[in-house]
Amino acid sequence: MKTVMLSVEKEADLQLAAELIRKGELVGIPTETVYGLGANGLDENAVRKIFAAKGRPADNPLILHIARPEQLEELCRDIPEKAWRLAERFWPGPLTMVLPVKPHIPKVTTANLDTLAVRCPKTEATRRLIELAGVPIAAPSANLSGKPSTTTARHVLKDMDGRIAAILDGGPCQVGVESTIVDLTGEKPRLLRPGGISPEELKEILGELLIDKAVLAQISHDEVVRAPGMKYKHYAPQAQVLIVKGSSAAAAAYVRENWSEGCAVMCFEEELPLYEGLSALAYGKAADVTTLSAGLFAALRELDREQIHTVYARCPEGGGVAYAVQNRLKKAAGFREIEVKEL
Ligand code: TXA
Ligand code: MG
After folding, report:
1. pLDDT tens across 310-328, in order?
2. Which of 64, 98, 196, 317 fits a disulfide with 94 by CB distance 3.0 to 4.6 angstroms?
3. pTM for the whole structure
4. Residue 212 Cβ < 6 Å to ligand 1
5. Rounded distance, CA 164 to CA 148, Å?
6. Minimal-distance CA residue to ligand 1 atom 32
7. Are 169 and 6 in contact (CB under 8 A)?
8. What gap in Å lies between CA 219 and CA 193, rounded to an integer?
9. Which domains does the chain have, with CATH numbers?
10. Quick one: which atom of ligand 1 is closest to the CA of 36?
11. Which of 35, 77, 96 is the best mutation target for the ligand 1 pocket, counting ligand atoms within 8 Å of the beta carbon and taking the most?
12. In the 8-state DSSP scheme, what is residue 272?
């Protein structure tokens, strides 16, 4: 299959992408978080193609994307008041809600669960595409299963060339990490995955919020988890990632001491001078954490090279979107981190 590159700037391209979705084909789509691998979420065969193209385990359910918040009602039942309050505040935007699913949604989409994940993305062209297609678009992140998510059309092409009909180029993703997922089906709301909307922001609307243990620690493969995707190895280059905690100077001293051929550093822009002469890549500025979330996956992809066996990674502290960056980096590192002694 030849994968065609399309642009959100061209109306004819949006029309073509919508037609491909309607016909049951796969299209790489931009969103504000990461690129998605989109298909008609109501078409069982189209959804199956997503799992095949990614090499995704069938027990890992998909998010359905809608053009307008009200469309939530077409997909889910027993929607609590707090879901509508979240929608009003954060949609369109990087928030996914898990709610009881309506019976007409195919079982392949939900991986047989009785719940469904729904998101209304911020990217205008994508919402227009959903309107044009006339169906909710099922879209996991547009990467091969186990690889870091994609944040540019070029990255999507690298993983999906020949596997999907088209890629709609909307430029680089602004948020850079996947959406926040909150499960509203339990007695108390539960955070399943941190993302662009922080726990603090959610608590402003929800009052209380449980943090699922998959967010905080490694989950073993036979454990039952609420977000099945969280148990799989994720976001990782083939090298061993090790998070180095502590001041910039102490971390750099540690890295220099332990350096060998085949090591690399993933640090903040401000720290680059400390790593002069070593193979170092800055993924954003410590002073602006949104640049770190936006640059994270591109850096992990860049460092996914045969010759590199160890990646020393610097991780931002604190809440907000930094919390999501910490979560993705910890997963990439298999929760391996080291606190270095101050000099
Ligand atoms: O930002 C995003 O959410 C991106 C863009 C494309 O929208 N999508 C994305 O999809 O990250 P994916 O499939 O890579 O991650 C979705 C996560 C998986 O961990 C999956 O297990 C979980 O959501 N999930 C989906 N449906 C669920 C459900 N009904 N209950 C609990 N978790 C669910
Ligand atoms: Mg993913």
Report:
1. 999 999 999 999 999 999 9
2. 196
3. 0.95
4. no
5. 18
6. 227
7. yes
8. 13
9. 4-216 (3.90.870.10), 240-339 (3.40.50.11030)
10. 6
11. 96
12. G
